[in-house]
Design goal:
By secondary structure, the chain is α+β, with helices and mostly antiparallel strands. The chain is about 25% helix and about 30% strand. Helix 5 links the parallel strand 11 and strand 12.
Length: about 270
């Protein structure tokens, strides 16, 4: 499967040089898995996309147009990854956004070679610290330089992923996944994303599924020093699903595989 791109419903390989997504990161995006031509958890992704557009005062894209784009990109019924970007469209120099306008960019890509890997993750904390901006917390906006730098640190260290903390040493996420922990008492906790981080669709699906199963998930601040108190940890995103985390910076989580198996069953 080769990459393919639709820009406002037209087959394109280029964007105007004055697109505000390029100039200022003025936009949002979502990345999701497609199985046999069907986008996984489509409704949740649309919900998150609408939320994020609202936070940036961007027009919410038409659901039918987005669905048509995905259908055209995956018309052969194949599997892969679809990425949806909504930018504020073209605009002149200066931060002040134009009064109207947006651009819809939907692209299809092959599944990463490791997308179905289920081996446990052994992580360390990244030296890249996440900045705090409550106005943008939880939003998957196009300004992702912290993650880019953290991924480069992973590449240089030869590691698959790393945990990212904020300036007050609170655990937020990994470079590309949300995190959930299980306490010694069996409680599920996930980092509060009120200052930094992205609310992923799979995180939302998993917390909802746990709640429906009678398991409360507590969104709370988790200090890095608390890691040693947990018995289990899982990491999740929309392309790779749920992975167990068996160790972070020497803190071992003996119940992670069990927690991961349970989480995967809930998402089936």
């Amino acid at each position: 499967m080769a990459d393919a791109i639709l820009v406002d419903g037209e087959w394109q390989a280029h964007l105007p040089a004055d697109d505000r997504g390029l100039a200022y990161g003025d936009g949002v995006f979502r990345t999701l898995r497609v199985e046999a031509g069907e986008p996984v958890a489509w409704g949740v992704h649309l919900q998150r996309l609408a939320h994020d557009c609202g936070r940036l005062f961007l027009p919410v894209p038409d659901k039918k147009q987005l669905a048509d784009d995905v259908d055209r990109l995956f018309s052969g019924g194949h599997s892969g990854v679809v990425k949806i970007m909504i930018t504020r469209g073209s605009g002149g120099r200066g931060y002040t956004p134009p009064l109207e306008g947006s651009r819809r960019i939907v692209s299809a890509h092959p599944l990463p070679e490791d997308s179905d890997r289920q081996s446990p993750l052994i992580l360390t904390c990244s030296p890249v610290i996440l900045g705090q901006q409550a106005r943008l917390a939880g939003v998957k906006h196009l300004n992702r330089l912290e993650q880019v730098l953290a991924r480069e640190e992973c590449r240089r260290a030869g590691t698959e992923d790393a945990v990212m903390c904020d300036h007050e040493d609170r655990v937020i996420c990994t470079t590309m996944r949300n995190l959930l922990f299980v306490s010694a008492e069996g409680e599920w906790l996930t980092p509060a994303l009120t200052r930094a981080g992205i609310i992923g669709a799979t995180r939302q699906r998993l917390t909802s599924a746990l709640s429906a199963a009678g398991v409360a998930v507590h969104e709370t601040d988790i200090a890095r020093s608390q890691l040693q108190t947990f018995r289990g940890a899982v990491a999740c995103n929309s392309v790779g699903g749920v992975r167990s985390v068996v160790q972070i910076d020497g803190c071992v989580f003996p119940d992670s595989e069990k927690a991961c198996e349970y989480a995967r069953k809930l998402l089936i």
